[in-house]
Amino acid sequence: MRYFLLICIFFMGLSSDIYAQDSSPKRLKKIVIDPGHGGDKPGAVGKISQEKDLNLAIGLKLGELVNEHLKPCEVVYTRKTDHDVDLIRRSQLANREKADIFISIHCNASRNHDASGSETFVMGLAKTQANIEAAKKENADILMEANYAEKYDGFDPNSPESNIFFSFYQNAYLEQSLILASKIQDQFSTNTKMLNRGVKQAPYLVLYKTSVPAILTEVGFISNQKEEQYLNSQLGQYEIAASIFIAVLQYKNHLEGVIRPLPSINSLIPREAIEKERRAREKEEAAKQLAQKLKESLNQDENKDIKEDTIINNCGLVYRVQFFTDKTKYSPDSSKFKGLDSVYMYNDSGLWKYTSGSFMDFSSANDYREKIKIKGYKDAFVVIFNNNERISLAKAREIESKIKK
Ligand SMILES: [Zn+2]
Fold this sequence. Notes:
By secondary structure, the chain is an alpha/beta fold. It has helices at 2-20, 51-69, 87-96, 129-139, 148-151, 160-167, 174-191, 205-208, 225-232, 234-256, 265-268, 271-309, 362-374, 393-404, and strands spanning 30-35, 74-77, 101-108, 118-123, 196-202, 214-221, 317-326, 344-348, 351-359, 381-386, 389-391. Zinc ion binds at residues 36-37, 43, 51, 106, 138.
């Protein structure tokens, strides 16, 4: 019964849309730009950004281009700031304003982080499950709206039947919507490096009650690291906005039956903004390199300290004071060592032996041993190393006497 009623509503909607078309000469006079999501509905979330912000940035740039280059065409935004607007109110605005086209701007997301590219949708029968899934994600915003079932004729984004039923709803301006969608995809292909995923149909709620030519464009994947960077860059946002703008000009030519030359993409992108961004990026890169160099030189200094800690006499001998033995290997700066300096450890038959200090002769090491005793290591004693190998005092004397001869 519910679906019977919905089918009636659908046909009533369709017929009133058809009669709404007038026969006066077509002019492109008003564009509704709809930056998707907003406020407490962020849309898809990437590593460095949220979809709602990118949609708004691109939408505003598109509006600026229309205002600057397509006078007296009027721009109406569904939102110009970071606040949410119910999906139904977005389409109602387009209808109330009697807009000539409705452009909803979104960014895509996928669990597959390699997924990339742009695609543009019109309301209609989804041919693949992937297209239904894409619409489901964008439609999910209504779950946060009050009385959504009432407002959207019983639509439930999570119900497969609902998605199939709404797929049958076609915009009365399907043909015009398809022309605009394909021109947008062509322009993305020409002007950006993004993969062209094509023009598709799916049951998007923001489109289904819009009784003017309407498209929803997914301008790239926020879930793809490289594409997210591009979507966040001034160059990316301008290339996308300018591509949509050129497609709008092509659509206008088609609608009005005239051939006007199209501007080049470069003439539409403000070079200062791109230059400014390039300089900022260079600055950031230089700061990063400097920080890396500083870090490396600090590491080198630390290594130098360690080398200088070990004082080897001209016979290749080092005198140290052994103060502690344990099965456990501790860090040289462990609090266990009561703040003793120049802790050096060596392994002897499975035991870790810890020494402190580094001296050129026995008597200096022996003096230091007295200081260590005061710290509580009463059994501390002098040990001698030759090429990092522990040797006896007798062997050390022998080496020293040989060298002195
Ligand atoms: Zn979205």
